Structure formats: structure tokens, C-alpha cells
Amino acid sequence: LYFFPSRYGTRLSTRGFKSAWQRAMNAYEAAGFERFWEHDIRGKAGSDASSTARAQELLGHDSPATTARHYRRAVATVRPLK
Fold this sequence. Notes:
The longest helix has 17 residues, at 14-30. It contains 4 helices and no strands. By secondary structure, it is mostly helical. It is flat, with a radius of gyration of 18 Å. It has helices at 14-30, 38-48, 52-59, 64-70.
């Protein structure tokens, strides 16, 4: 099973995937949403995971430090100037 299968149920070629992605993004944008890239999905999955351990598992990192450094950022606090 493939996430983006060809019309015959086989794996898409690189060019076929790019075409399918562009068609999907054009339809998504036409529906009033903001366009995004496929690599944004990975970052979103890591950021929204329930814990660093779960994000590490989803992303396939060997070290939890890598996951924490790149995907599990703390909420920024803003200090007023005065």
C-alpha cells in the first residue's frame, strides 16, 4: 500500500509524485488554505507529538537530544521592554 499510489496501485515515480503533490496543493489552495511543503509534515508531526520520546519514535532519531533540539522547542516567552 502506498500513500500516493498510481492509478494502477503501484508506486509513483519521482516525477509522478511531484505531479500528484502539485495537483493536491492546487486543490488545497483553491479551497482557501495556505500552501505547504511535504517536509513541513515531518516537522509538524515532531512538534505535535505528546512527548519527546514519541517524537523520537515517529521521526526515527537515534538520540533524544536530536529530537529535542530540532522539533521539541519550548514555547518562547516575551519579556516587555519597560
